[in-house]
Each structure stands twice: as C-alpha cells, then as structure tokens.
Amino acid sequence: DVPGLTTYIVLINLLVAALVPLIVPLVRPTTDLDFWESFSLIMSKVFPLLITPCLCAWLVRYLAPTLHARLLKHPDLPFYIWAVALTLAIAVTTRSIVHTNLSAGLLLLMSLVSLICCAFQFAAGRYIGGHYKPRQERIDSREVRKVTAGQAMGQKNTIFLIWMALTFMTPETAIVGGLYSVWHNLYN
C-alpha cells in the first residue's frame, strides 16, 4: 500500500519534527540556554531538514512540470539516492565505532538492543496490520496490510536519527541509529 505507507512516513516525520525540539531540551538540558532558546535552536535545524525536501518536491511537481516529467523517466533514481544515504549512514556509524572509547561489551549490547528494537517494531507492525481493517477496502489482502504496517513500524528515518544524535547528543548515541539502519536493511 504505497500511498498509505507514504502518508504514514510523511506524518510520522512531521510529528518527530514537532516533538524533538520539545523533548531534547528536557533530556539533555544545557546550562547556557533555557528551554525556549533550546527549543527554537533545535526547531530551526530540524524543521528545514524534514520540511524543505518535501516542499521542494511539491514545488518541482507543480511549478516545474517539465523537470518533474524528466525525473519520472528515471524510476530507479530513488533507489540510488537511498543507496548513497545508506552508505553514508554506515560510514558515519563505522567512524563512530572506530573512534569511540566504549568497551566491546557495551558496543555488543548496543548492537543487541538495536536488533531487538528493530525485530520488535517489524513484528508489532505486522501484528497490528493483520488486525487492522480499513473502512474502505483499498488493499487487496490481509498479508499486504501486514507487510505495509510492518514496514511502517520497522522502517525508520535512520539518517535523521543519526543526524539528531550527532547534533544534539553524543557520537556514541549515533551508533545505535546506525546499527538499527543495518538491521532494518538486512531485514528488508
């Protein structure tokens, strides 16, 4: 269910863009900024990262139809963009692992926790999708709903997660996002 999955991804990323600036100052307060200053700073970095690409895509679609038509002639382009993004995510994760002072045991535990979280979210999505019955049956089968919900719950914007960890937390926290990226791409 590509339209349903796309809608979910856009909405969940908008929700994250709104919640992150509210939560990060509470989780990692800074002594030199109050909550609202932290919120404004984070919002100024997070909102454009998620909203600007969406607005650019809409602008190209409606204001530059010729360019939009040319881009649509390359249906594999998103795959290659995704492959580059995945490569960068793995490279950043590898760099963080190589430069960390964390013990091998802690790295193994972080890897295990991210694997468990990934497996749980894909399984929970499949379970929820198997019991969800839309008002209008657009989707042909229960199995399609299960796969769609599993993807929606398990597939994360890990590039965004890694960026947030590096920007607002510590390089070590980015490792977990990178490992999750590896797990969900291996699953897929």
Please give a structural write-up:
The structure is a single chain. The chain has about 190 residues and is mostly helical. The mean pLDDT is about 80.
Summarize the structure.
The chain has 188 residues and is mainly α. The chain has helices at residues 2-27, 35-63, 65-72, 77-99, 104-131, 142-154, 158-168, 171-187.
Quick tags:
mainly alpha; 188 residues; 82% helix; globular
The residue fraction in helices comes out at over 70%
Our Rg estimate from Cα atoms comes to 19 Å
pLDDT < 50 stretches: none
Per DSSP E runs of 2 or more residues, the count of β-strands stands at: 0
The overall pLDDT average reads 80
Estimated structural class: mainly alpha
Largest sheet: none
Shape: globular
Helix count equals 8
DSSP strand (E) fraction? under 5%
The first-to-last residue Cα distance is 16 Å
Helix/strand order: HHHHHHHH
Any chance you could write out the topology, listing elements then pairs?
Layout: H1 2-27, H2 35-63, H3 65-72, H4 77-99, H5 104-131, H6 142-154, H7 158-168, H8 171-187
Helix pairs in contact: 1-2, 1-6, 2-3, 4-8, 5-6, 5-8, 7-8
